[in-house]
């Protein structure tokens, strides 16, 4: 009788999704779905896990790590600080970023906030692992041209080998996701055979059973980031990243290369070149379309401070122009580099004027 009661109680606990910590865990878990970006916004990321059996909701201490194309330079993208409530077989756990939440309808009620996304450099080829705090890998998914190791614990993959990788990059350009479409109880075979790209917009689920349809973010376009890096982002994301946005444009080779040409001053020596090359030379770029005046290698107008009136090279009119500015306390008359416009500035100017520009 007592044995029967224990069996009934055990079945009831499974139905209710209740497990005791002594026998509970998190290791029987799939990485069911991953997205590296939405409509080119690589800050909009989400990772969805699914329990292969009941009692896997004691997730405290587990973590997710991203790896580069060679299986090197791991980055912890998320560490579970606690457990989830629902421990039913097939229950999901959703970790999502703020921008991903904004792209779903209704807005996603996530289980955890993804504050450290998978690095952008890992999205074309890389790996994501679900593992213990000590690095025991329970599930791994790799994509693109991943060439590194892809082994793990046999709890979810009988031979402990998750390779070969899924052949395509992690989705970033639309609303589709990389998905494990097998049953919640299914084990891993290998990433190439197990995963697919969802057709159309992807659907996501959280631990309480809610579902959320990924819609479209605002229109994307070309974002030229500092360092001449080109990325396809929304206008908002581009602005946050400090870039210059062009609607409905992609990133062909050289799209963000700055080819502005103008006068470059290296001291008092002038040359016409690109703004990039001028910076590499240690010069000062005077602006698009500026030229080295008078057809000489030394542009008195652009590169010589003593040519104060900016006309016709050095001459007596420059002295009168300077003195006029000096008496008016014009900031341009501060020649000696010290605060304020004083008599020493006159001597500093005359010294440059007599030295000429060469």
Secondary structure: elements and pairs:
Elements lengths: L1 H15 L12 E7 L10 E6 L11 E5 L7 E5 L12 E5 L1 H5 L1 E2 L6 E2 L12 E6 L5 E7 L34 E2 L11 H4 L1 E2 L5 E3 L5 E4 L5 E6 L3 E6 H6 L3 E4 L13 E6 L2 E6 H6 L3 E5 L11 H4 L12 H12 L15 H13 L3
Helix pairs in contact: 7-8
Characterise this structure.
The chain has 358 residues and is an alpha+beta fold. Mean pLDDT is 84; it is low at 1-23 and 295-299. It contains eight helices and 19 strands. Strands 7-5-2-1-10-11 form a six-stranded mixed sheet.
Question: How do you describe this structure in short?
Answer:
The chain has 358 residues and is of the alpha+beta class.
- Gross morphology is elongated
Helix fraction, binned, reads 10-25%
Spell the H/E element sequence.
Answer: HEEEEEHEEEEEHEEEEEHEEEHEHHH
Question: Structural class of the helix and strand makeup?
Answer: alpha+beta
Rg, rounded, reads 31 Å
- Mind summarizing the main beta sheet? 6 strands, mixed
What is the CA-CA span between the terminal residues? 106 Å
| Oligomer status | single chain
Provide the low-confidence segments as ranges.
1-23, 295-299
Strand numbers in spatial order across the main sheet: 7-5-2-1-10-11
Number of helices: 8
How many beta strands in the DSSP annotation?
19
Mean pLDDT: 84
Q: Which range does the strand content fall in?
A: 15-25%
